[in-house]
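Rather than argue in generalities, we have chosen a single entry, letters for residues, whole numbers for local backbone shapes, without further comment.
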Amino acid sequence: MKLYIIKIACVSLSTMDWGMQNRLAKIIHPEDGRCLMLAVDHGYFLGPTERLEVPRRAINPLLPYADSLMLTRGILRTSVDPKCDVPMVLRVSGATSIIGEDLSKETITTSIEEAIRLNASCLALSIFVGSKYEHQTLANLAKLVDEGEKYGIPVLAVTAVGKEMARDARYLRLACRVAAELGAHVVKTYYCDNFEQVVEGCPVPLIIAGGKKLPELEALKLAHDAITHGAAGVDMGRNIWQSDWPVAMIKSVQAIVHKNADAEEAYGLFLEEKESDKSSQKERHKVVRTTVNQSMPFD
């Protein structure tokens, strides 16, 4: 199954212009056909999400381990160093909030010219198949693909799922295939039972969403199961930066995605990195206390 997915990605790349191929190769590594995307775009409809209240503080320690960063233009401009060489997956849909009428009533909020100015490697947009605003969001995707093709920028379609919809293979198969039919170059979706059926029905690479915060071992099992059953990678957010040990967590996910570690091996790495982080923190605190004590005036 893994070889099948890599072959699919290579075949689709061969028909693309150089710029499109180059940008996609930054998102999905051609060496193994895999990607580890770090999602920090939650604030576009949730506001200051727990542990993402100050985006720069959450992002900076994790950037060295992410293949790409998914975010809005506002957070890119305010919270990411321009000298950063990590590819940016720019969310360009929104204009709804968690307290609004309907989250599915999205529109395109960022122009293609703006994306070019920001040097985006990929454009991300949500679709809501089966929702009240299905037509609007699918039309958004078609329009964005047209714009992206003009300038060689790939599009990531995010299969958002409303509360009333089941995250099962039947629904996700439909949503992912529709996204691919409209021209999406990569699709982000959810892992589910019989996920290989979703993969089989989608002719472009799939990456899975991390979803709500899970205990670390469960999140690592989710990532491993998805990769094992054909996903090209993961786009995780809360399961990384809401962990008490986010750097240890992203390193462990990286081991699954790019080093073929299983969930237990990755969890063992997580525990090792956690202990190492604890020791580093103790040493830093010791240095701070020593510095403070030495600066105190004598009685």
In short: Residues 1-11 have pLDDT under 50 and may be disordered. The beta strands are 35-39, 68-71, 88-91, 93-94, 107-108, 122-127, 155-159, 186-189, 206-209, 233-236.
